[in-house]
Amino acid sequence: MTIAGKPLPHESARGHVTGGAFYTDDLLARFPNVLHAWPVTAPHAHARVTSLDAAPALEEPGVVTTLTAADAPGEADSGPSRHDEPLFPTEVMFHRQSVAWVLGETLEAAQRGAARVRVSYEALPAILTIQQAIDTGSFLTDTLRLARGDVAALDRSALRIDGELSIGGQEHFYLETQAAIAWIDETGGVVAQSSTQHPSQTQEIIARVLGLTRKDVTVECVRMGGAFGGKEVQANAWAAVAAIGAWKTGRPVRVRLTRELDMALTGKRHPYLVRYSAGFSSAGLVEALRIAFFSDGGFSLDLSEPIMWRSLFHCDNAYYLPNVEATGRVCRTHKTSQTAFRGFGGPQAMVAIEDILSQAAQRLSIPADVIRERNFYREGHVTHYGQTVDDAPRIDRIWRQLKATSDFDARRAAVAAFNAQHDEAKRGLAITPAKFGISFTASFYNQGGALVLIYRDGTVQVNHGGTEMGQGLFTKIRQIAADSLGVDAERIRLMATRTDKVPNTSATAASAGTDLNGAAVADACRQLRARLDAVAADLGKDVAFEELCEAAYMRRVPLFAQGYYRTPDIHFDRATGRGEPFHYFAFGAAVSEVEVDRFTGDYHVRRVDIVQDAGDSISPVIDRGQVEGGFVQGMGWLTLEELLWDEDGRLATAGASTYKLPSWSEMPPDFRVSFLQEARQSNVVFGSKAIGEPPLMLAISVREALRDAVAAFGNGDLGGNNLGGNSVTFDSPATPERIFFAVRQVRAERLSAEARGAKADASLR
Ligand code: MTE
Ligand code: LUZ
Ligand code: MOS
């Protein structure tokens, strides 16, 4: 019986669509005496709090109490890295930061109370852009660096490209906004139900703010309605506020951000400014790359440092860079603290290198797919941080398979034919690869734990350290447990993630949820299966699983086991910038075709083809969903979603009306996803590979297809273009506005080149 590899539906699919699936805020109904919390938020991006009088709030009917600095018995700070996120700040660091909270019998009472809290501020100058931060020396980190070879090679290259690229951030827009409910249990301990990717850290922060030890705090996460990195550390503060409220009042306290508050208060994907110089041979090989990343970290450190490391690790994408110097620095601005988001700094760096390669292709009149192919990692190649790219040949395999199945060459010709006949619209086609390193780059996080319980009736409860956010982790783990125990999936129940079942867990992040926790569950199940096999041998006959379990119990064989997994052989030394930080690489490639309107810059995606390496997929339907969802989320980031802050540091795009998300209308009408065959990954649970983040970066093919289409307004077709030595550039996201201006620029260049040509012709006559 094999259940892994079967295309099972998501274990909560029915609950998701019927509304039956339980989320944190659904607990509300179980607590008739729950209190609702609402923040008092500051009207400045940067200010000193000169006085705060919460007392007037108490005059409001239904207000029970207020929460200010004096109410936290421990340290009122939720900063996960540095302690730089005071829950009751005396210095406001971003517009709408909460300075106090009000608890009410109803949400409305709490809101009315919050409006009554009197706060005076002394406004201070705010730093709102990366450039301002650089100019004023406002940074959250030192400069991080990875380098190899000698970038002086730049000066000897046949082609040199110097440039700057600005890349926008992204709002997570998980459907379930941040939520937590905390209460005091019958023994005096604190319990929180929290929509968190990292229950152990939520537990740590609650213990910190209450001055308790971890044994006094239990955190449970039943599931999340999406997280995407936005709840890797940023769920903690809300659980901490709820816990402080519960501690003060003895009553359950609920914090749930409205969409508008969630967008205003929580961190986003980091905006980046990238400065680069790249040197190419006349054949289009990268000879040297100097690249400097500046990220907008917002007001506190959060995960910005490991995110910047991941950028430095991914500035090569799938390409061998012989000489490279990559540096990165996190800027401190007066904005929300930017945080983890699917890809974790990798996407920004990969957008940059793909941008540079496309420009080189245009400048050298080499087709972009050819220039990419020529620069691929080959067998035996080592990255700029010293890790051998073991499976480098897979890049070529995927590339060739995708080119064939997407009919790339024929469509290239068809696009050129279309473009030759149309002046009002042009089509573009691009293929881009993605290589993504799998493992937390902070090596100690790469561990997983499990506790598997078999009952005498032959049914099984599986506990593990991972959290479910819609990605299908629980579905995969159920399949792993079923096969490891040799029973069918119906016997197995996946329990909500709790810190009192498996301690000291890592965040479910870095796409490693199944690799780590799945392997730990398999380890526990292996032990149990061995014990049961011994009992079966003793019985001397085949019996049903429930009888075997009963027999084991009667023989006093323990029917529960802990499982553990740690990723072998990974290490990285920041000081030298050398190591093997990743257990393996996930690979994929995508072909996108777009059509751009000359007059408006509006565009649509006509077709997308993807080949992704998922190893031996444990759950093909889940993996397909991850590829489709990740791709569309990446496409949204690179094309539609634009975060704007006004000159006072207010988030101008703080709702779905002004922040444009991809929807049904943006789905590629022709969307073909397939997986690399014979792709078993050795040394990973069931031969599978991580799938959560890598497909997001395949959306870069849409950005590059847009560049291809824009170039066609200059001269026809980019397959070998003559833009007069120019290349098409635009910042990210490639909104219709940016595409409109890029088209206008390219057409102006063409017209002036034609005018020069006409003049030259005339002078010959
Ligand atoms: N898929 C859904 N439906 N919802 C999510 O929140 N998060 C992504 C990805 N896929 C996410 C998702 C991110 S950022 C990560 S790191 C992985 O799922 C985490 O889960 P995994 O490690 O089990 O793949
Ligand atoms: N989180 C983290 C991550 O703490 N370290 C990582 O390397 C990482 N990578 C991807 C996503 N989340
Ligand atoms: Mo994902 S950004 O690792 O939560």
Report on this structure:
A hairpin with a 5-residue loop joins β9 (179-184) and β10. α4 (199-210) packs across α5 (236-249), α7 (304-313) runs parallel beside α8 and α12 runs parallel beside α13. Helix content is 31%, strand content 22%. It is built from 17 helices and 26 strands. The strands form 6 sheets. An 8-stranded mixed β-sheet has the order 3-5-1-12-9-10-11-20, sandwiched between helices. Strands 7-15-14-13-8 form a 5-stranded mixed β-sheet. The chain has a 4-stranded mixed β-sheet with strand order 16-24-25-26, sandwiched between helices. It is globular, with a radius of gyration of 28 Å. With 765 residues, it is an alpha+beta fold. Mean pLDDT is 96; it is low at 716-722. The protein binds ligand MTE, pteridine-2,4(1H,3H)-dione and dioxothiomolybdenum(VI) ion.
